[in-house]
Amino acid sequence: MNLRAVFLLNLVQDVNILRPLVHMARESHGYTPVLLISAQFFGRDRLGIWRNEIDEICAATGASQHVYNNEFEAFEHLGGSGIIFAGSESHLPAHITTHNVFRYAPATYLRVTLQHGYECVGFRHSADHTLAHGPTATFGADLICAWFDREHLTALDLSQAGKVVVTGPSALLQMPTDSVTRAPQAPGIVCENLHSVRLRMAGNFKLEFVDAFATFCNQLAQRDQRVVLRPHPGGQYVLKNKVPLPRNALINNAPMYRLDMRQFAYGISAPSSVLVDMVLAGIPTAVWTDRDGAMDASSYAGLHTVSGPGDWLDFATSAQADPAPYLERQQLFLKRSGMPLDPADVFARYSEIFTAANRLRLANPGAARERERILFVANGNVPTLQLSFEKPLAAAVARGELVTCLITEPELRANMETGTLDAWLSTTLASFDPTQIVFCRYSGPGGAQIIDWARAEQVPVLYHIDDDLLAIPKDIGERKHALHNAPERLEAVRLLLGAADLVYVSTEALKMRLAEQVPDAQLQAGAIYCSGNVIRRPVPGPARKVGYMASADHAHNLTMIMPAIVSLLDRNPEVVFELFGSIPCPPELERFGKRISTAPPIANYEHFLQEFARLEWDIGICPLTPIPFNLMKANTKWVEYTSAGAAVVASRGGVYDECCADGAGRLAGTTEEWLEALELLVRDEGARLAQVKHAQQKLEESYSLSQLREQVLAILGDCRNRAALRAPSAHQQGMVTTDA
Questions:
Q1: Class of 188-337 per CATH?
Q2: If DSSP states are collapsed to H, E and C, what string results for 326-385?
Q3: Mean pLDDT across the chain, nearest whole number?
């Protein structure tokens, strides 16, 4: 069963906060989205705006929607397991509806509360918040997603500190990124939040704001200028109270994610999170405060302030004439805020929560499960082990269905050199008592003894291999060639290929090659080798970053297309080229100076993926020289580039042909084809965005983590079945001894 991502909608502004995560749940992580809507929600949505938005979200994501009157009705829709998000949740009366759902939610769900405003109860209070609600608030969530770190969470209760995860505002995930041209006579925008505690706790400032706005509009009318007024989505004060508006004041009541703030010449608001939206949009922004300064606007210190209508007019005039000084102050404000502001970074932070919930797959504490014990044997904690087993099996490990242990070549070799290998293995194997043994790309010592023990104990043995380890060419480097072609390593690989109950192979091409070399090997290839999920969407705009991610043994592949890379950089001076991994920088690129950059390899695969996404490459290259060894490679780079939002150009005639089909990548052979494909993606924004869209759709449909998990579990099951069918005589006939 797929994990469920449940979103609690109680206040109308919850839609704005949760909408990007609904899309993320479905599109990037494969969750089944469910919207649980409180009955009170529709009473607050008097104009029906948000009902339409919910229908649109459901149509776009396939989410189901259900209305609940109380926490018990909500509980009926919380079957299975997954994650629950609330856009407004605390013990306070205004949030008690969602708070009670969290209190009664099954233990199979991870509960997550989002900070929904720059000033937000339980996170950061103004003096007016404290007067209205007290100095702090508590949450029913397991995790609370904050916009900034502890230093800025001035209202955080100490009991909640361990729940904090700094994600940044979810609204950053749905801000417009395409170019916009502001009209010469563009109006400003004024946002009202007259329902807020800020305008009633230290005094009644509503009339003062309304009067200032009316006078300001009259002054603008004399200049034949207009202004847009946006009511607060929840308060709707000017509409509910039928406040008379000047003729040159235009109402815009659209959700924030449908309103491109960049089109306005300036923005004015009383203290509210919308000020942050204005600042992020890059328009001159002013904070309205009352004449006597009784209202607390200290959280927005550093932004320009206005009070009376004369201040409003002076600001509007100055902001339109020379916005630069305001924008400079606003950048400093953002820097001091401590908020993560890079959308890709914010996406990655929320992605970690989805990934964590997927791994946990929280089980009912009363549900007992039988445990499988898998012993991995590998040269080290190599990327192949992380990609092929640790990542897809992590959820089962977290649920207690699997227990794993890793023995590495250095451990085995150290005991072999001291003459204690047999005794150490005997103790280690008996202590862990595995139900299955998986050799992952292994070529070191000790294989014969472990096979011997497994046969005696009737423990299934799987060998996983993702390269032709019997024919490593010199092309990947003299050192690696010598290492892998050492007679003892070739003997170890042949032993494992022949003795394993099943050999799990990364590609069909490699399966065919190994069948020629070891005819008796029980070979099975997986449909996919590397899973992926969308970590970053492609960014509209000119393509500037082209990159290659590889280890040092791929230098020959890069050398093959170096003439095309050099020509690309010569003909497109705005383009930079980046290398990620241990691959050395070719001398041909040295003359390009700062336009060439490198990033060192990262051993942990998940950390590597997150860091890779932060590089924000527009284009990633996958060159492979046409040698037999490369024809058996997997399409891992296509998966990783696509996950990170980079368009792929790859070598034709190999593993990339299938994944790049149907517009999901571009294939090249000659230098001319490589240059043509790269320049097309650099110069044609539409072609690049369309290609990545197709690629990420294919990634989500055919390379998901759940698909790889099912494949790996099926392989492990097949291995167990084959071992069980082996006759007792076969055990004796196939016995491998330490003398073999």
A1: alpha beta
A2: HHHHHHHHHHHHCCCCCHHHHHHHHHHHHHHHHHHCCCCCCCCCCCEEEEEEECCCCHHH
A3: 90
Place of tokens 């991995």: 376
| C-alpha to C-alpha distance for 393 and 277, rounded to whole angstroms | 41
- CATH topology assigned to domain 545-702: Rossmann fold (3.40.50)
The CA distance from 360 to 709, in Å, is 14
pLDDT single digits (tens) 245-301: 899 999 998 899 999 999 999 999 999 999 999 999 999 999 999 988 888 899 999
Q: What is the pLDDT of residues 373-383, one digit of tens each?
A: 999 999 998 88
Nearest-angstrom CA–CA distance, 703 and 30: 11
Largest CA distance in the chain: 101
Query: Which helix (H) or strand (E) element contains residue 437?
Result: strand 436-440
Nearest residue to 398 via CA among 357, 360, 358, 354: 360
**Other beta carbons less than 10 A from residue 369's beta carbon:** 11
What is the layout of strands, in order, in the sheet containing 64-68? 64-68, 32-38, 4-9, 82-86, 109-114, 143-146, 164-166
Confidence of residue 195 (pLDDT cuts 50, 70, 90): low
What digits encode the pLDDT tens for the residues 286-317?
999 998 888 889 999 999 999 999 999 999 99
**Domain 369-530+715-733 top-level CATH class:** alpha beta
**Mean pLDDT calculated for residue range 572-597:** 95
C-alpha to C-alpha distance for 556 and 623, rounded to whole angstroms = 9
Location of each CATH 3.40.50.2000 domain in the chain: 188-337, 369-530+715-733, 545-702
Structure tokens at 403: 């227990």
Q: Does the domain at residues 4-169+343-353 carry the CATH identifier 2.60.40?
A: no
What is 153-217 written as a DSSP string?
Answer: -TTB-GGGGGGEEE---GGGGG---S-----TT--EEEEE-TTSGGGTSSS--HHHHHHHHHHHH
User: Nearest-CA neighbor of 666 among 686, 688, 683, 684?
Assistant: 688
What CA–CA distance (Å, rounded) separates 630 from 664? 21
